[in-house]
Amino acid sequence: MELKKIGDVVFIDGGVCAAKGFRANGIQCGLAHKPLNSDASDNSLPSAKKKNDLALIVADNICTAAAVYTTNKVKGAPLIVTKQHLHNNTAKAVIVNSVNANTCNPDGLQKAQKMCELTANYLGIDSDDVIVASTGVIGQVLPIEPIENGMQKLVSGLSYDGNNRALEAIMTTDTQQKEIALQFSIGGKICTIGGMLKGSGMIHPNMATTLTFITTDVNISAELLQRALDDVVKITLNRVSVDGDTSTNDMVCIMASGIAENNPIIRENNDFETFENALYNIMMNLARMMAKDGEGATKLIECRVSGAENDKTAEIVAKSVITSSLFKTAMFGEDANWGRILCAVGYSDADFDINKVDVSIGSAVGSVDVCKNGAGVEFSEDIAKNILGEDEIFIDISIGIGKGNAVVWGCDLSYEYVKINGDYRS
Q1: C-alpha span between 387 and 380 (Å, rounded)
Q2: Are 286 and 310 contained in the same domain?
Q3: Considering the entire predicted model, what is its pTM?
Q4: How high does pLDDT run on average in the chain?
């Protein structure tokens, strides 16, 4: 999909390895239960390549680090361990597995800590400087032996171009790889930031089921790194919905090596704004990728609300629309049933005058107004269906004359979603 660009940034290749001083690798250690790019579930198939299931990202030097976690009251053991390790806002490595979430298990904390200890021993670092994450099935005991047996291969294969191998290892029901990197300038110094994300189902605007890992060579204080991440999460990952479920293992973390040699960012000045804009470009595009690759999805839907009293009101209205199952199924059926949009606008927990609501639908082939001042207007159903036939749809909603606005992302709801989640564990 086409990347969106805000401000003076240049997209480059490399993902989490694009920034100076970061290596990565991913291997198949024996956790993966399905062949890569195959519907088959029989691991005995000799011709099928099983996907990577264990990833490692390592910085050349100790980094400033920050993270944001799921709001689910049930939290995976890796999140608890990572929060403990980031008490000093520093990290040097990330170890992550797919297939098994290591959540709701009696030995979960020990297994998560063991993953950190194994990583630390092979890298010769402190285990407290290791971030750990897991994704996959909840409630199944994580076998540590495959991870332990794979560590030598994982570490020996680390390279400055290992981003794709690491990315494959964190994917679960994802059908598309999601990574991005860009460069920008701070004080005449070229800076780089890159990231990778997994996320396809159990996505809802409270830190969706995503593991997102971001690396940068910017020199920035721990306090401002955390502030930037908190700010940007609210208007990117927290504005994506696929199916209304929020998982237990969601986490986004960022490591900053500081070796770009920019003047240290220690206050909220122009340099901080430049960095925050770069981070927004990374996470906004990753959020769009996640929405477009929603489980069973055929369309990316971007809902844009304007004219609100404030941004929060606009966000509430936009989320109400993007999470409506009736609206999502109408988009799958390419049916311009604007009444479902207005219905979702109407039951949102926001104050506005319904008689001032305008709605239009659009895509790359054009747009059409479907509602003015809270009432339907005549439009061509054929034109509307042609618009909705594209794989990226825009819903524009104006609810007044205020300055508040918000953008959220979602997808349609198809038959395939039920199929995927009906046999997820098989």
Answers
A1: 11
A2: no
A3: 0.87
A4: 90
Q: Would you say 65 and 226 are in contact if contact means Cβ atoms under 8 Å apart?
A: no
Burial class for 157, CB neighbours closer than 10 Å (0-12, 13-18, 19+): middle
CB 293 within 8 A of CB 410: no
Question: pLDDT tens digits for 257-290?
Answer: 999 999 999 999 999 999 999 999 999 999 999 8
pLDDT at 296 over 80: no
> Whose CA is closest to 1, among 204, 176, 232?
176
Indicate if the pLDDT at residue 209 is higher than 80.
no
- b/e code 305-341 from CB counts within 10 Å (16+ = b): bbbbbebebbbbbbbbbbbbeebbbbbbebebbbebb
Place of tokens 């999460």: 233
Output the pLDDT for position 250: 86
> Rounded to whole angstroms, what are the CA distances from 81 to 75, 96, 104, 403?
11, 13, 14, 42
Total of domains in the chain: 2
pLDDT of residue 41: 42
CA 185 to CA 364: how far, in whole Å? 32
3-state DSSP assignment of residue 143: coil
Residues 271 and 309 in one domain: no
- If asked whether residues 38 and 157 sit together in one domain, one would say yes
What is the extent of the structural domain holding 284?
10-292
Longest dimension (CA), the chain: 69
Q: Give the orientation angle of helix 338-346 with respect to helix 325-332, to 10 degrees.
A: 160
Rg (CA), the chain: 22
Residue type at position 134: S
Whether residue 248 is predicted with pLDDT greater than 70 in this model: the reply is yes
Q: Are residues 276 and 307 in the same domain?
A: no
Task: Kindly state the average pLDDT of the residues 157-178.
Answer: 92
User: Which tops the pLDDT comparison, 423 or 23?
Assistant: 23
Give tens-digit pLDDT for 38-80.
444 444 333 346 899 999 999 999 999 999 998 778 888 999 9
Q: How far apart are CA 150 and CA 155, in angstroms?
A: 9
Show which residues are catalytic. Answer: 209
Helix, strand or coil for residue 347?
coil
Angle value at C-alpha 302, between 339 and 373, nearest 5 degrees: 40
β-strands 90-97, 130-134: how paired?
parallel
